[in-house]
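Design a sequence for this backbone.
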């Protein structure tokens, strides 16, 4: 299975929704808390080509965006394809 990384904060409702979708599909992911270390947020912004909001989600090396983009992939049945 492909590596999934999600940059989050603890209280972000969109982060919670995105993680819940991944968990409901039994998708393992690495959660990276941007509040814990300011350098991590800088890394997230660089990897996501300037996106500053959380969550920012990466499947493999591909930046897919945030919560809305994750749910859009799921509604098009494209999320499972990306994870295969």
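Sequence:
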């Amino acid at each position: 299975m492909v590596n999934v990384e999600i940059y989050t904060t603890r209280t972000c409702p969109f982060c919670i929704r995105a993680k819940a979708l991944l968990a409901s599909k039994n998708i393992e992911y690495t959660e990276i808390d941007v509040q814990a270390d300011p350098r991590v947020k800088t890394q997230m912004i660089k990897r996501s080509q300037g996106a500053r909001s959380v969550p920012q989600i990466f499947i493999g090396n591909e930046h897919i965006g945030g919560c809305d983009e994750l749910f859009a992939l799921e509604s098009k049945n494209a999320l499972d394809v990306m994870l295969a």
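The chain is about 45% helix and 20% strand.
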